Amino acid sequence: MPALRINMRKLKDALRLKFEGGQSHQQIARALGISKGVVTKYVGLAVAAALDWNTISLMDEATLERRLLAYPRPSDSYAQPDYGRIHRELARKGVTLTLLWEEYCAEVGDEHSADNPVKPWRYSQFCENYRQFANSLKRSMRQVHRAGEKLFIDYAGPTIALVAGSQEVGRANIFVAAMGVSGYCFACATPAQTARDWLGATAQALSFYGGVPQLIVPDNPRALVTVADRYEPVLTETVQDFARHYGCSVLPARAYHPQDKPKVELSVLLVERWILARLRKLQFASVAEVNDAISPLLQWLNLRAFQKLPGSRCSVFAEIDAPTLKALPMQPWEWADFKTVRVQMDSRVEWEGHRYSVPNALIGQVLELRVTAHALEVLHRGNRVASHMRSAEKGGYTTVTEHLPERHQHHAQWTPERLVAWGERIGVACAATVQKMLERQPHPEHAYRACLGLLSLSKRYGDARLEAACTLAWSLGTCKYTHIRDILLNRRDLLQASATPEWTSPAHAHVRGADYYQ
Asked: For the HTH IS408-type domain, which residue ranges apply (predicted)?
């Protein structure tokens, strides 16, 4: 371990005792509690610098240190690395200072010649020089971020007024997102800061970046977090569904700790300075107008060059962050509501007054509904067991026949149209009879069993006889099932119409005749 540098105040006392007091090195060392060698060293440095006590007494400690301990200047014989590029390369996954030092040595070796006699720094000095460079950057650059790993999101403090005529009708809130390595910035306006606004704006940001990071880091908004615990924050079901859809994680920062997400804090500051400040004198009537005004300014901000590092946010994003992002899902994300329900005895669950069927084996079970703008999904232990298009009909039913018990599935197939179609396959008279049977009841379901009984007669007597029986029943002015059944049972449908002329009574002695009654 290297020896600690002597305190300059004690060094000044040692020089005073030597030059003004004339004491020996041994006496000075014993009086000040330092070694004799240290006294000899610094007295020699003072003599070499042509310093006496009168000159030393007028110097402050910093000036004396510069005169005695001149810092070595980097030799021109060493090749100076591009520490800005090295700092950027360290953000890539798997890149280390050792690897970058080896590449630096290889580059110096390739450039070495008689006209350019330079040599590389040793590894220890290379690392020390880099650390000094990193310490000269802003504090926000000291955090270690991996390419494509984190996306930081937040809302800016200032808002933009929405004006209709001369009256303010609302405020546009400004959402800001920033990538961890490049700081590539996204901003858009939303009507408020509800959960729908947070997640909708984040979905827009992911589309803007063209990919998905591993981690999304918001602060602790109540719209997204149900339990703002320091160690294990609990997100809402909708936020967890958002993360599952995009295949990433959402990890809120600690409450009241903006240093956990410095990238977006800096981006918020830049958006306020370079975008919102330029829009302060303009008037907007809607959130869409605000977004149209933000878009070109946002592009300019991302193309603006860094002050100390090479490139811009846009170029660094394209080079480092973009290649490591995961692909966006095929389907766009939709807002989803969640509700816990219990399956009723009719194999249905209810949402907003409409009832949807689920498999009958789940009757009595507690399930979870995931409801989007157009669809309703039924989840059992995380697995989808049913899916329906949403219906706004209050008191209505949406049923999948396969969800019902087997004995109910046949009943579910009974509809007036289907019964009439079954009758048409037998004949015109049969279809007309079925239609008449349905119409004569106050509700069509009252005639379902009679219609099915009528149609079932074809299995016993055949389609031709049933059609003939229906024709005979129509001529008699009836359409009851029992009447048509009796016609078939008595074989009246098989009797042919007589071709003989009208019947006349034969002559007989016992017949009195019509004249008898005159």
From this structure: 11-90
Structural tokens at position 199: 């997640």
Provide the 8-state DSSP code for 82.
-
Tell me the C-alpha distance between 485 and 470, whole Å: 10
Q: Which residues contact 422 (CB under 8 A, 6 or more apart)?
A: 434, 455
* Cβ neighbour number for residue 298 with a 10 Å cutoff: 20
b/e per residue 385-420 (b: at least 16 CB within 10 A) = bbebeebeeeeeebbeeebbeeeeeeeeeeebeebb
Give this prediction's pTM: 0.53
Give one DSSP letter per residue of 485-517, joined into a string. HHHHHTTGGGPPPP-S----PPP-TT---GGGG
Torsion angle (degrees, nearest 10) of CA 33, 39, 45, 49: 80
Q: E strands, 212-334, where?
A: 215-217, 225-227, 234-235, 249-250
Distance CA 155, CA 182 (A): 19
Fill in the DSSP letter of residue 139.
G
Helix axes 463-476, 481-489, angle to 10 degrees: 120
Residue 385: DSSP 8-state? E
Q: How many of the other CB atoms lie within 10 Å of CB of 354? A: 19
Q: CA–CA distance from 235 to each of 242, 381, 387 (Å)?
A: 11, 19, 25
Name 168's bridge partners.
163
E strand or H helix at 110: helix 97-111
208 contact partners, CB below 8 Å, separation of at least 6 = 186
Residues 476 and 474: their CA atoms lie apart, in Å, by 5
User: Phi/psi at 276 (nearest 5 deg)?
Assistant: -65, -35
Provide the CA 267 distance to its chain's centre, in angstroms: 21
Tell me the pLDDT tens digit for each residue of 320-355.
888 888 888 888 888 888 888 888 776 778 888 888
Most distant pair of Cα atoms in the chain: their distance? 188
Classify strands 215-217 and 249-250 as parallel, antiparallel or unpaired: parallel
3-state secondary structure of 331: coil
Do 212 and 245 touch, CB atoms closer than 8 A? no
The DSSP code for 280 is T
